[in-house]
């Protein structure tokens, strides 16, 4: 199961022509599919590779993730961190993050990940900067809150990466609370002169923003 805006054969072709991933990711994907109610929440291999590459390009030593789920994206970000780097990942669900922790324990780079359980609107407020990279992939109603809380803590030149910004295309005619929240967030970013940004049609839409 996946959530992608491109045909499956194109998605498979793109994955096949991207850097291969550690076998750990495929096992995590399989367990997420078999043991969670909403496996489509997991980022796919293309997005995972993009997160690793963006983290490397940024030279990130401190990254923050909002929305852990079963830990695929956290693994991807942590893999790209500079030596001595750290990822703080925030979530509220002890069941799905328990799956994540098992796979982090296996990964050679899993020790770079620190999980903070609790209401993320409070958790991210307690994090001190400067932050090099942020990944937001949590409850859509609070996207603007997460953005506004974290952006001031990101160093100039740092990145904010935001998932699900196209919401399966529903942003074109938002009829649900989540679609309206995403559309509102997208407008918020569009009018934010603190960043330069691009919206990509990778998977369910990703916005990559660089703090000026």
Give the integer mean of the pLDDT values: 96
Question: Could you say what the CATH architecture is?
Answer: 3-Layer(aba) Sandwich
CATH superfamily: Vaccinia Virus protein VP39
CATH-defined topology: Rossmann fold
Radius of gyration: 16 Å
CATH class: Alpha Beta
Shape: globular
Name the helix and strand elements from N-terminus to C-terminus, one letter apiece.
HHHEHEHEHEHEHEE
Spatial strand sequence of the major β-sheet: 3-2-1-4-5-7-6
Helix content percent band:
25-40%
Tally of contiguous helical segments = 8
In this structure, how is the largest beta sheet organized? 7 strands, mixed
Question: How would you characterize this protein structure?
Answer:
42% of the residues are buried. With 212 residues, this protein is α/β, with parallel strands linked by helices. Helix 3 packs parallel to helix 4 (72-80). It has eight helices and seven strands, in the order αααβαβαβαβαβαββ. The chain has a seven-stranded mixed sheet with strand order 3-2-1-4-5-7-6, sandwiched between helices. The chain has one domain (8-211): Vaccinia Virus protein VP39 (Rossmann fold), CATH 3.40.50. The longest helix is centred in the N-terminal third of the chain and has 14 residues, at 45-58. Helix 4 (72-80) links the parallel strand 1 (62-66) and strand 2. The model has no long low-confidence stretch (mean pLDDT 96). The termini are far apart.
Structure in a nutshell:
With 212 residues, this protein is of the alpha/beta class.
């Amino acid at each position: 199961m996946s959530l992608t805006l491109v045909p499956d054969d194109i998605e498979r072709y793109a994955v096949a022509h991207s850097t291969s991933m550690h076998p750990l990711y495929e096992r995590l994907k399989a367990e997420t599919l078999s043991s969670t109610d909403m496996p489509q929440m997991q980022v796919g291999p293309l997005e995972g590779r993009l997160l690793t590459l963006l983290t490397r390009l940024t030279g990130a030593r401190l990254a923050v993730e909002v929305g852990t789920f079963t830990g695929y994206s956290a693994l991807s970000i942590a893999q790209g961190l500079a030596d001595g780097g750290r990822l703080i990942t925030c979530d509220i669900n002890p069941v799905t993050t328990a799956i994540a922790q098992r796979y982090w324990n296996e990964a050679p780079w899993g020790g770079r990940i620190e999980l903070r359980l609790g209401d993320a609107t409070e958790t991210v407020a307690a994090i001190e900067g400067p932050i090099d990279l942020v990944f937001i992939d949590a409850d859509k109603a609070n996207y603007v809150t997460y953005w506004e809380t974290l952006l001031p803590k990101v160093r100039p030149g740092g990145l904010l990466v935001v998932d699900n910004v196209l919401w399966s295309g529903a942003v074109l005619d938002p009829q649900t609370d989540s679609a309206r929240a995403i559309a509102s967030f997208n407008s918020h970013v569009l009018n934010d002169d603190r960043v330069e940004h691009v919206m990509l049609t990778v998977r369910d839409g990703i916005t990559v923003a660089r703090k000026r």
